[in-house]
Amino acid sequence: FILGVTTAASEYTQKSIVTTYTVTPSRWRVVLAKAIVVAGVGLVLGLISVPLARLIAAIWFAFGDGDWNASFGDAVQYAIGTMVAYVGFAVLGVLVGTLARSPALGVGIGFGLLFVIDPLLGSFSFYSEYSTSAVSQTLLDPDNRQSNQPLFGSAIALLALYAVVLAAITVGVEDRRDVHA
Model-level pTM? Predict the structure, then answer.
């Protein structure tokens, strides 16, 4: 998330967005390009972190007394969930960073939404299954899903829905903004 916010908002802070919009006046293309780049970075981080985490867990449990199910199917599901979560939250970060236009403000808004407002709304039963914290918990640990969390496929769909809705808002707001030097 932070990577996406800083990637999008730093261009506004440094005023280099003027050059970007002079070269490519279509703002949705700029937002889409940033989202694709940050999603690619999130995907690569997921591809690296999941096998590394599984290796460390296997070593950890080999020296301990615990029991660990390290089946290939579970590893694939964890890998897919982690990569989708990394990509989805990175794209959400780009969109929030574009709206905020300041890395500090974007990170503050993101943390406020993800760690304060979302859990408060998640305490209401009608929203708890749709909260971003429930989505991330389902994607990052699909074996420990609680009854108030979405199913794995639903969590992916919800994250995509949140990204599409926020993208529509971001592009709509961004199209109406003036670029000042």
Answer: 0.84
